[in-house]
Amino acid sequence: MRIAVLGGGAAGLTAAQELLRLGHQVLLFERSGHLGGQLRTVDIEGTPLECFYHHIFTNDTIIEGLIDELGLGEKLRWVPSRVGFFCNGRVWDFVTPADLLRFQPLPLVDRVRLGLASVYLQRQADWRAFEGYTAEEWLKRWAGEQAYRVIWEPLLYGKFGDAAPSVGMAWFHWKMRLRFGSRRGLAKEYLGYLEGSFGQVWQRLAARIATLGAHVYTSTQVNRIRVQDGRATGVEVPPADTAAMGEAFAAGLAERVGESAFFPADAVIGTIPSPVLLRLAPELPEGYTQLLAGNRYQAVMCMILVLKHPLTDIYWLNITDRAMPFVAVIEHTNLMRTEDYGGKHVVYLSNYINREAPLYQASDAEVFASYLPHLSRINPAFRQDWIEDWRLFREDAAQPIITTNYPGKIPPLATPISGLYMANNTQVYPEDRGQNYSVRIGREVARLAAGQT
How many angstroms separate the CA atoms of 144 and 137, rounded? Predict the structure, then answer.
């Protein structure tokens, strides 16, 4: 079969590879000029770095297997990470049980209660037991009102905004299990990072699928998925004057139809956000469109700072002060070597936000100005002249908002239109978005489209 894959991120590239392995022809369309999706990189002192922070956990065995398959295993480093909280005007270590007992923003009885609730979540393997609860109501009941107010409420609101009270406990539980699963006993968690960035994985995979015969069209926006007699028959794109498009016409892969170039296909896989599929396939029936419309997302803004000096000695610093305009400080060079970045210290400031929010719509300079005063609260020695460079990146559909009883809200991979499939990070439940599960769902949807499952 000839199968069109929409989206050149992790799921799309993985789906393309799986289809090629199964002997099918692949046309891959990516609207941006690069492949890899949210794994795109920027150069920092001669070394590629993800625009949005990335690491993997020890239980992310699927992506680890792909890294090995692509010959990059020797570059994967497992490093103990330091986690902390910025709370009540200071930084607190938050890695070991002893750190929890020293966490003075909570009374001792609440620290113990929080620890017991965390152990329970770690040992409870069945996420279904939490399906009917919101994270807010479960955590208030079992970890305590005080622990919720001091720790979890600021983080949930920082990640999900006004949707925080509706976030499902099953998602929260599985997120906690993934992090606890990356620990070695009661010691620190170990996180994996690929020297030279994870961008290498997707660059190498893109090269492999091209070698296997995939036809890849970047900077190409699909305008419509054509549907005829209830079946997807291909995709329409603007007929750009490019060498790749010219070759597509010459090879008979595309034909001019009115103002569009039409690429016939036996099946179409959309590894794209749910609202985009709604726009491209208006023929989808009401029941499925309601599921897609119910998929809500938070956007993300991620600022990279290149500093002369370290901001903290912690890798992942959770911000519980809701007056701060970001929810986490990820100091990349507290996980990897500063030598890889010209001796500089690399810091991400992460902020999940509604894309209609004024801050998300603000200019880069306005965002930078709003962030700057808070850095000296984290480190009183910080001065603006520490900053040698900074960049800001945005992603509209970054974090799905996962509510209670979510399985009934997940759109099936196979849509009601024959030959049309969807795979995105709203469908990896109970797991959260990430490279590991993008690879898994990419392979799964490819086998489904190819009739292998």
Answer: 10
